[in-house]
Design a protein that fits this description.
Helix content: 10-25%
CATH architecture of the largest domain: 3-Layer(aba) Sandwich
CATH topology of the largest domain: Aminopeptidase
Strand content: 25-35%
CATH class of the largest domain: Alpha Beta
Distance between the termini: 33 Å
Number of strands: 11
Radius of gyration: 17 Å
Length: 225
């Protein structure tokens, strides 16, 4: 049997994140208000054609296949990169009190949007917070670092939107925020996982220090019809 994370988007849109999904048959999409993901059971020519036909003109999607796609010229490829998947299977974390860190809510969205637009951890929309589990680090009332959750694929929940304001990079803030997200996921009985570009060595080293281990090599595409 395939591992749930071998095809994380498809698994998520048919399991833990199904409440955010739409589509029928072999093509599933995430709610466009919170993300751009699309899932297929197999990323072959037949299923990619089904995806294309299900999309509106100008629509963009993000897919995580296990390898390179053989794409027709009809697709506009906006991103094509290797992706490293890591999993956190350590015991629950004992969190120390940190008055600078708190859970983020709807009122924080404007600051979250401003931070992600500056730090660029990946797509973040006004309703992306609906995935839940977001925590932020504040300096003098200003949000300067954050992380949260995203796709829930079977027993696994994704860590996402890990970012820090450029003025505060190098101060170890992500390492202070992330345990709160990991704890949130584990308290729900889930296992944290994440994906990153393999050449992002600072992030890779951070995740290794926290206890994440590499699980699989995938690929990320951003495709436009």
């Amino acid at each position: 049997m395939d591992h749930p994370l071998d095809n994380p988007i498809w698994t998520a849109l048919n399991s833990g994140s199904a409440s955010f999904a739409y589509g029928i048959g072999n093509v599933r999409f995430i709610d466009r208000r919170i993300g751009f993901f699309a899932g297929l059971p197999i990323y072959d020519a037949e299923h990619l054609n089904q995806l294309y036909e299900a999309m509106d003109s100008g629509m963009r999607v993000i897919v995580f296949p296990s390898g390179c796609l053989d794409l027709d010229a009809k697709w506009k490829v906006r991103n094509d990169n290797a992706l490293l998947q890591m999993v956190f299977e350590k015991p629950s974390i004992n969190l120390s009190s940190d008055a600078s860190i708190r859970a983020l809510a709807g009122a924080d969205v404007p600051e979250m949007l401003a931070l992600t637009q500056l730090a660029k951890p990946g797509p973040f929309l006004e309703n992306t917070i609906d995935f839940g589990g977001y925590f932020g680090f504040f300096v003098e009332g200003r949000l300067v670092s954050m992380a949260g959750t995203r796709l829930a694929a079977g027993p696994y929940t994704e860590v996402s939107a890990v970012c820090t304001h450029p003025d505060f990079v190098g101060q170890g803030l992500a390492q202070r925020v992330l345990p709160h997200v990991l704890n949130y996921i584990q308290q729900k009985g889930q296992i944290p996982y994440l994906q990153l570009y393999p050449d992002n060595l600072p992030a890779y080293r951070l995740y290794q220090r926290l206890g994440f281990v590499a699980r699989a090599n995938l690929r990320v595409y951003s495709l436009e019809k």
